Amino acid sequence: MDLGSNIRTIRKRKGITIATICAATGLSQGFMSQVENNKTSPSISTLEQIARALDVSLAYLLLQKEERMQIVRKHERRQTSGGTEQLSISHIGHTPHMRMTLVELAPGASSGDTPHAHEGEEVHLVVRGSVTAQQGEDIYRLHEGDTFSWNACVPHRVCNDGDEPAVILIAVYTDSRRESELI
């Protein structure tokens, strides 16, 4: 963890001097310099003082770079296709345990010819059009604004049996970490 650099970056971004931090915390400038250069590891109580002086949460100070907010601009989204190849999948964002995609199903398109299963839990929002969702013996016709969710370990399938394209926003949670894998 590069805690010292995190502290220095936040301090500089906020225009706060080391002297100001020291005045607020009672710490010496030499100690703060060592902290910012990762030459010493402050205690949790000292980190709490530094966080208060920087007006950030202790949890934010402790985040590693890959744990901080990630931004994916619309034009930067990874695009793939899937299912019956009439699915356009836009990978919106992900964390180690969760992924979000925006899936467009052409008329007649489906997630596959037969129901499939995989690890995780899914929540779907029909953004546009209508789809038929099947999990086991449950089959429902869903329209714009409707949501459906399921445990993905039970075979499931989604199809657009309408005449217009359908768009679904999908969030998938998995217990296992999948840093490099998108849906």
TrEMBL record:
The keyword Cell membrane does not apply. The keyword DNA-binding applies. Keywords: DNA-binding. Coiled coil: none annotated. Residues 7-61 form the HTH cro/C1-type domain. Pfam families: Cupin_2 (PF07883), HTH_3 (PF01381). InterPro entries: Cro/C1-type_HTH, Cupin_2, Lambda_DNA-bd_dom_sf, RmlC-like_jellyroll, RmlC_Cupin_sf, TransReg_Diox_bact_type. This is MerR family transcriptional regulator. It comes from Saccharibacillus kuerlensis.
